Amino acid sequence: MMNHRRTAAAALATAGASLSLYPIFTGLTWFWAGLGSIVVVAAVATATRLRPLPVPVCLTAAVAGLLLYLNLAFANAGSLYHLLPTPASLRQLWDLAGQGFDQAGRYAPPVPELRGMVLLAAAGIGITAVLTDLIAVRLSRAALAGLPLLLLFTEPFTLSVSRGFVGTTVAFVAGVAGYLALLSSEARDRIREWEHPQPSATDAPDTRTLAAAGRRVGFASVVLALFIPLVVPGLHATRLFGGGQPGIGGNAGGGGGSASAGFPDPDARLSQELKETAASNVLVYTTKATDPDYLQVYVLDRLTNDGWRIFGQPESTVPVSPRLPAPPGLAGGVPVTKITTSVEISPGVGADDLGALPVPYPAATVSAPGTVRADRATLMVLDPSVALGGLKYSVTSLSESPPQQLLNETQTPPADIASHYLAVPPAYDPLLSTAKTVIRDANAKTPFQKAVALQDWLSGGTFSYTLNAPSVVSAAGLEKFVNVTRRGYCQQFSFAMAVLSRLIGIPSRVAYGFTSGTSIGADEWLVTTHDAHAWPELYFQGAGWLRFEPTPGGTDGQGTATTPAYTYAPGSVAVGATAPSTPATAPTAPASTSSSAAALRNKLRLEFGGAPGTGAIGVAAPSGQASTVNLWEILGLVVAGLLVLGIAAPVCARLVIRRRRWHADRDVAWAHAAWLELRDDLVDYGAGCQPSESPRTVATRAGTSLALAEPARAALGRIAMAEERARYAGSPADGSGLRHDSATVRRAIAAAVPRPTRWRARLAPASVLGPSLVAIAATTDLYRRLSPKWLSRFRPS
């Protein structure tokens, strides 16, 4: 009964710790699969304890039961009677696990519940359950069972994943409560054993008072661990409790970059997201548009000597219910199409740092929970009353298709636009000559033609795209980028075009947000941190604010950046986003053509194991950006390295010890070195050496039991005699030949024992492992539980 109760406690502790994995996945299928693993392991463990069985047998049975469950859950189609594993089903299980490792390297949390990754989760939880049950129940060491639970519990934090205070707190409390319950179960059993070695149902001691005290102590400890970091100065709430500041970059207020008026610094966040090795999911949206617009988050409209700033103030915002203010400058003569977009922000890391809703510009209506407000001038959409992670909302936007004739005939902007969006500090005046040169070379006459000329000049061949460039935050930095380095990413390109446009009389501002992302089929698009982007918006009376794209796109630039179709000359052919438009540029092909979208859907279908056409959410680094680091490959290399180190360490340690012993220049030291080497060799090869035996007795017994022949027997006698004379005689024997005698005896002992014993002595010398195991056993209080007969071989004399 006691073991059954502790088995249940171990299973509950594992289930509680597994809850900490919830930030990694988008659903709960992984949890139910892992729970099935826990139940199967607990059932098999209970069955093996009905009879006294050796620990290796119990461990093997638990692993076999787990494998049988995984085969049934993930590869039953190839199994015998859909239950018993076959070579085909095991091969399918192996291939699915390989897919899971590959997906783990390419997808960033929170990931969709791909079958391969769910298999890895279920297997990992099951292995944790096996180890927890073995240590806590079979070896009766509940405290040490916290080690596998800790590995499971800390996995999300090694990936820097969090999903808010409430969820992570619940997972933390569940894991700690399970572990405390496991400790309590073992403690109650020990108390019963102390008072009554064989307790019956009637004479078992009452442990309720002590158990209640333990529960109070445990509850108080959990509460203190949760809340002290939140209230004590000098302690910081960690990622476990979602203690980061809201907003991109987490750098609200003043300082460098683009932060202003309580808004965060988009420059810092943009650089961080683009330079992340592994892309993280930001949001998924659904739209009928074949070439969706960019998603605008922030608008920086005030140019200073230190870069662009957000000028918007709290008093400039109005409620959205659900209609937004009319887009500034957009007249009725411009063809527009109403596009409805349904957005779901990822609950993963960074989603709560947006600070504003990503929406296509210009948004006409926004339907979202909370208190939604919009800035009158920029149409930035704010929802300060809710956390944006996991938020779902709907946007109706206006997709403009202004004819170039209209754009070339636009009138002078109104005074309020010109006064604010044409202001340029004198520090930028040296760049005016550069802008005039570009316009003259392109033979541009109208403001729109001048804007296209600037766009094509920046995205053309004289500039190159790289993430290894510092952010431009000053006039001097911009002049260096434009005239010297000509290397950078979207932050530098958008900064440059917006400033050059103002210098030649075109109102401009800089928008931060995301590109359209990647089509994943079924009208769905995925946006990741590698789609973070900055672009200039220029004002033309009648059309309002229009997006331009000076950043190189395609394989040599920011992969998902696209040039607006209205900047191409009529009749041009789509050839790519980066070709210069002199006299016109070809429009960029959509992010995913029908053939590439079909290939992507087919790839995702294979990953999901579904029917053709199944869509899925995934992350892959865009072309031209850093490839994703496969964390599972790194983990495999680390494990392999540790295994190699574990095999090589005892061998190397034995050689080092032997070498150090012979570093002596006296007969007495040589005698002791030969004697110690003899003792270690006898222990390594299984002959043993008792502390109470004299050197001569050891030599006689070893020579007889191992049937050593000459000259090994004579060498053995010389070693024993040299040790006795070094101990007791006034003058030691000549030790110059003892090293040769030691090697002779070692070779003879190795030849006298069976081959398995010989290899065990070479690869796992007991003279090295023994003291280490005894020290570990004593440290962890496992010495009493291990077999005294087995450990007696390793005890130092």
Query: Count the strands?
Result: 18
What average pLDDT do the residues reach?
Answer: 75
Helix content: 40-55%
Give a quick account of the main beta sheet: strands, pairing sense, barrel closure.
6 strands, antiparallel
How are the strands of the biggest sheet laid out side by side?
8-11-6-1-16-15
Low-confidence stretches are: 199-203, 226-263, 572-631, 780-791, 793-797
Q: Which structural class matches the secondary elements?
A: alpha+beta
Could you please describe the fold and organization of this structure?
The structure is a single chain. The protein is an alpha+beta fold and 797 residues long. The strands form 5 sheets. The chain has a 6-stranded antiparallel sheet with strand order 8-11-6-1-16-15. It has a 5-stranded antiparallel sheet with strand order 7-2-14-17-18. Helix 2 (29-48) runs parallel beside helix 5, helix 12 (432-442) crosses helix 13 (447-459) and helix 20 packs across helix 21 (738-752). Strand 17 (532-540) and strand 18 form a beta hairpin. It contains 24 helices and 18 strands. Helices cover 47% and strands 11% of the residues. Mean pLDDT is 75; it is low at 199-203, 226-263, 572-631, 780-791 and 793-797. The radius of gyration is 36 Å and the shape is elongated.
